[in-house]
User: Fold these one by one.
Assistant:
Number 1:
Amino acid sequence: MAVPAAVELVDLALKATSAYQRPDLGSRLQHTRRRLADPDVRVLVVGEFKQGKSQLVNALVNAPVCPVDDDIATAVPTVVKHAETTSVTLVRESSPDTPPERTEVPVARLAEYVSEAGNPGNRAMLTYAEVGLPRKLLAGGLVLVDTPGVGGLGSAHGAATMSALPSADAVLLVSDAAQEYTGPELEFLDAAMKLCPNVACVITKTDLYPHWRRIMELDRGHLRHAGIDTEIFPVSSMLRLHAAKTQDPDLMDESGFRELVNFLLCKVVAQSDDLDRRSTSQDVLAVAEQLASGMKAELAIQENPERLDVLVGELTRAKARADELRERSSRWQVTLNDGTADLQSDIDYDLRDRLRSIGREAEQLIDDADPDKVWEQFSEWFHQQVSSAASANFVWAAERARWLAERVAEHFAEGADIALPELRFDERGIAGTVDALERPRTEKLGAGEKALSGMRGGYMGGLMFLMPLSLIPGVGLAAPIVAGGAALLLGRKQLKDDMKRSLQRRQSDAKTAVRKHIDEVTFQVGKDSRDMLRRTQRQLRDHFGTLAEEVSTSLAGSVAAAQSAVKTTTSERERRIRDLKAELARIGGLSDRARALLATTTAHAAVRSGKSL
Amino acid sequence: MNQPGHPAPPLGSVVRLLLRRTIETYHDSPQAVAWMQHNLDRFDEPLRVAIAGKVKAGKSTLLNALVGEEIAPTDAGECTRVVTWYTDAQVPRVTMYPRAAPARQLTISRNAGALAFDLQGVPVEEVDRLEVQWPSQSLRTQTLIDTPGIASLSKDTSARAGAFLAPEDSPSQADAVVYLMRHLHATDVRFLESFYDQGVARATPINTIAVLSRADEIGVGRLDALSSARRIARRYRADEKIRGLCQTVVAVAGLLAQTGRTMRQNEFTALTALAGMPRADLDAMLLSVDRFSRTDLGSATDVPGSDTRARLMERFGLFGVRLSTTLIRQGMTDPGTIATELVKRSGLDELRAVLATQFSERRDLLKARSALLAVDLVLSREPRPSAAPLVAEVERILAGAHEFAELRLLSTLRSGAVKLPTDAVAEAERLLGGEGGSAAARLGLEPEADHGQLRAAALDAVARWQRRAESPMSGRTVSDVARLVVRSCEGVLAALGGGRY
């Protein structure tokens, strides 16, 4: 959320930088301002399908925005955000280079585009649908993203969901009260905890299941056992919608939504606000300090001209240090470069290692069976293994990159409090696509083959991680049934005995195909993760480089100011001291406001928790 | 193929003979003899139907509903952890078969109506199976097998279910499988695939029925929830990929069915009292399970107290309470009628009908299939020159028995590989026994149809498909299909008696 006080403060500081002719400092503030202008706090609503995700979003905004059906599932992510009037926009991102294509459609027709009924397997290739709603809950910048459910979070689109996590401000894992957590759900939670600052579990449909408390306790036990520390919110979307209709406060209490909304506003939005305040305050304080440093140096000389040499000496030494920070030789540069190189080789090794063991297992499987008979089941298994390996590798890379940024900051400031750049991995992420595992050619193609290749179009074949700008990918997420369907067709292929002769050849062909595919994945994913690291490295280098430059410029200014100060006459000196003190007081005021902004972070949240809905 | 005019000997006796011959050939291998003897005995046992599905799909509840008694323990958390067989017997008895120890009898205790088993301290992973012998009409024709859930958090439990239903090295112990699912997940599809027959009947979903379980919850307990669930089941049924995996899909509200078959007088009294409350009050209470059990109704003595209501909710579910109070309000005042209505609406009757047509009527075929798989295992494990005629015999039965040919053709038709008009495919499937093996089911007539009607319809079908088989416009595949269909119709005619034409 754009904190108005923060924006105001940045504007004021910007004015000061132009008044004191320090455009270099101005550009950093401009950047801060741009960041503040993007008020979105993204909350991903994820879970296996038919758990009540869409209904949860509807209940949160008290409007039937996401289509809910007993049978038909959501096919396209729906982004619900604040707007003055209700509107629906369909967004199609074809490639990272061209601007996304946006189409407005009437509100009533949303269901035709986002549900499996109107848009099976997302045939329309929509990236997401955006719904604008005039709601107080969303006015704070809260953006709810209803995602298509995944049939087994370990599947290929489970991996895609995973790669969208770092760009989310919070994740709600939705699971209904019918049963305790399943293995895939817990695995997903575990990975989500590593990638996203706020993860919460929502248990839905508590109105329907008498034993929801038992289920919640069981879930809590599972979470504890897995070492996952998150809150659990039992809710009933039905009760909340009913409560909103009848204005019944008791029902509202029972629905459990008060707590969930509190969590979203006080923890997720407030935390994002806090982050905004903290970073703005830090930026403005740093700018104020640098603006003041020249004047402070001059003031010191004006008051004690005899200490000129000492002061200039100190300043020059400080400047030399700042220059050195800018140079290649300084420690943070070494840390950064070495760290990046280490990281690159570690991640590369990790990926290769994971893929190699999959490859070994795959060859074993091929040895044990006739690849032609089991091919579809096999290739599905194989793709799933490969994509989960790639996403695990990605999670790990993101974690390590963040750790590296902290190390660099430590070395850069040698203990001082230095702002960390906001590392965003969502700019392009892992966007590589790899062709589907190629089926080795056999001399006989069954009748099912044709249908099969048709099915592949829907399944998209192979590994595909796409992270369109900070959104969950909606690319042709085929329904699980479709993905499974291809396997069925081939499973029934009947093979003639005369084909046994070439079994060995088929096995060796299959192995070649597996090796080729692994090679390609290693190459493509490896390149993508190297690119991501390189971008991270550049981001870090530019961030700290600019910081060093600013300090150096300020110190150079201070030296010059100090040196020129000696030349002034006594009367001028008196006046100059007065002026400087007044200017410094003004800058001091700026710092005070920045500090005050920092002080409001937690206090503010406490006030707001009182009035939640 | 058999000569026209000479009806083929029944498949069952052919396979029994094969089993005996195999025992003779392998008389010197105690292991093989024991295995074959076991399968010969199995041939005469009731059909073994396993109930499988993911965790919490409602397997035990459905089993109780089918038996009509609360014998399988059920719970909100994961409950069944050991494969449990339920067979008919004169006297109730529970036997535990540990893996590495002799079988022992367990004491039977009842816990609030349901049976409770105490494993006497034996860890679940060391128990091979439990066998519950229970006097019950419903178990007389089929042995029901309750299995632990697939995709359980406890990997061992899942593995036990997998090892039982789709063992890696031997044919499954179950003749048929009822697969329960809440919605069709990718894991469900994978599991259904694993029932695929690799050997004998070659890729037929003949022995699998899918059940959309907990049907009342799919429509979040609304009064129309079950029609919604039936609609979904219909969609799945029409889906080509799912048709290739199972015979059919039926929606069943297991809890409703179980409660309907075991409803007690005091429950009926409580429901009647509730139905007598002002409508608005009851509706407000029925908004959520918590409201229903916890609302304080003051000291009024004629309405059931909080504890009673909580128990009602557990037995009926939100949907069940909504439905039964509505029924009472509409004038049903007899517990028996309500119970019957609940069972009818739950979809259990439909499931039982499907079980009867798909499994019981095909009993011999399913048993023969299991037995052939068993023989095949012995022949491939212990090959010997003297067994060569047996191998040929297995091949002959598979290729020659029209029952298996029908199965193979059914699965080919369902895969959509044959180019025929849609209604012709539907008719062919029906004639091949896709909707049941009885003459009426095959001919698409009501079960009460008389002999003359059946005969006329069969003759009509023969003529129609004969034309298709001989038409120069039909391709080779279509001709082959048509010829097999004609053969099925002739089978029906032969069974009806009275000469061929």
Number 2:
Amino acid sequence: MTLPELYRARPRNLVVRGSLTAMLILIVGVWLSGAFLDPQAFTDQRQENIARFLNELRPYPLQSTTFDASVALTWAHSIMQEKGWDALRITIAISFAAITLTGIFGGLLALPAARNITRSEPFVINRTTRNRITDLIWSTVVGATRLLLIFLRAIPEYVWAFLLLALLGPTAWPAVLALALHNTGIFGKLAAEVIEDLPAGPLRSMTGMGASRLQVAAFTVLPLTLPRLLLFFFYRWETCVREATVLGMLGIVSLGFWIQDARARNFYDEMFFLILLGALIVLLGEVISTWARWYVRRAS
Amino acid sequence: MAGLAEATASSGKRRWILIAIAASGIWASVSLNLDPALLVPGEGGLAVLSEFFSYALSPATTYQSIVPEGTTPLAVQALLAAWHTVQFAAAAMGLSLIGGITLGFLSSYSLMIETRRGITRVIGGAVYSVARLTITLMRSIHELLWAVLFLAAFGISQLGAVIALALPCVGILAKIFSELIDETPRHAAHAAEAAGASPIQIYCFVLAPQALPNILAYSFYRFECALRSSAVLGFFGYPTLGFYIAASFENLYYGEVWVYLYTLFLLVAAVDLWSGAIRKRLALTR
Amino acid sequence: MSKGLQLENVSVSFETTRALEDVTLHLEQGEAVALVGLSGAGKTTLLHTCNAMVAPSAGRVLINGQDLSKLSASALKIARMNIGFIHQDLSLVPNLRVIQNVVSGRLGQRSLIGAARDLLFPADDVTERVYNILTSVGIAEKIYKRTDHLSGGQQQRVAIARALFQEPQFFLADEPISSVDPVRAESTIALLTTLCAERNITLLMSLHNLKLATTFFPRLVALRDGGIAFDKATDTVLPSELEAIFDLTESSPVSEEVSDFEDRLGGRFG
């Protein structure tokens, strides 16, 4: 073959190329359409507003004077006493409760979503009997579970919380359940993939000894998958902390509630302080989660 | 015997993790007063609940109230809202990619510090620290909080919303990009160095191409996340799906709510499957 | 100014271990020399001192009469472009096409934009040169294939093609056949020695396989515990001398540390 022929015959990945091109066209097209190029963004009026806004981000006792650390600290201390500590406690508690429920729901839903367990005669290489109807039932179970998981994770936490708050009333449950439902969709899918990747050997030998599906799940699948599941668990917890702060904006008294409240009262200094507090707790969550994942890796 | 002792120790460590998780879960439920009895609604609540879920199987086909002549049909309205959701997400993704790649460069240990010597190493280290700090700050503030900040600063502005969506995404992409490149195997880089290539050439033409499949795969996953966040922006008055979900729900038109929920589901699920297919194809063969 | 490659009383130590001790070696332009010895004897270290990836703690390395340690950063870059290095593991970018891997051999001679152009839209004459080089190593038809879709032997030839694309005066090869099956190994060595002879390239290659070393190289240099055990024309080497090199019982205990270090030099960087 000559060089040009070789060039024409070069292997190409059309799906990837097509997707990249489509994405590029979408992004460039959206920007060129002008919907997001706001001509009003830089008028004098706007700039004045922004300058005033930036000034109002400073703690109000300091807005007309020079900086004084003790005044700032007293100001911060009074906010923390009044709402900060309690909001932090609730935010963290919501994330803990939500991730615990996620672990339970996700772990349970992962089993019927894993094709290697949820089938007739699991782990058997040469199947002796073939029954179309039981096969169909089992694959329906897998399909339905997976569909449920996709639905759970496709709806954002915030939307779940909004709906549940109206349906269940103003307790902490809507926030906890909203986080748990969305994360169950993600955690369940990841856990199902881990289970499907398990080596068949240990599972097969358990079945060979006459263990039932659930016994295999409890005594073989769980111990084998636990380390990786814990890694995902802590990753998801990190995002739970992040989301728990903002769910408050719907009316549950986590950090977001007080941020929304400060905004409504135009106390921008307090709003900014609480947003930074939110950033701090997200960072703290990241540090703890990184440490926990390191610990899990070391232990396994 | 050593193997057994080690195995016992490691399962002992894991037991502590599980105990800690259980303890924190119990503390949380006590602290939040998560009484299961609170989940059982009163008579009125039960009626609302069953009405809401009964519409899951029969979502509305037309508006549930009388609308003036010439109003966009419900189905078209749902598609339009979906399109707006995609627009916000795509616009934010464009900014995030540009910002993420730029900051990813600047916060890469291998480019800014590892391959440098002398004074450029000091400068590189300073730039690296500033870039790290910036991306950490960007991603630790939730997109909705950025949106609240910008709403307070600019009022309602499409551009502000897009930037709010993009900022945390820039932080996350930059972090992941720099990590992916830093974790890339180094033999090819050393070979290029031995052939006289400069650090920036090695970074761009040896390390970055090796990390590219993972970078692309991750960006597609992020697009999925941007789509969800973009839908939620509707709750703040932007014309994405969240706006219509909130509006219909507050008017108690549950049939319409389910139409918008299913639209959001189909949109996210489609992107989920799409990005999954791409990730599978991009996987390196060895 | 003398042509060729010279090592004068070179010693290299890492922390407490000595990898090379007082090595003096001279290669004429166009000469082909095999470097033999146990792993941990210092072969990889020696090769890496020749292109200044490892700095000697004593002594000098001269390339065409230039002392490598006295060169400025840019002069060193030019000196390195003149040296093709073939690594133990292939050091290719797996998910790039063959042509892209080959053009990356001359990154050092190109600007940032020129390099980007070579990689994404190579000029016709560049493509043709790559094609000719791939023809000479026998895998021309693979030019547009993804590198990780090739077999181990074919990938080794890509690595050789990349080094040839530099148009170097010197070739350093560190166990270039360690990832290739025995039949391919022989043809790879044959190819390398022929290519170097044709182009008057100075070749220094470390080899485990004594049979290949004695078949294809007119001169053997044996290393033992970081020093030169002998340096002779191949046909004058006695069987007893070869045996002594590979006698494990007498090797010193430090060699394990050195071989660990050399494994890392050989490219297995985390």
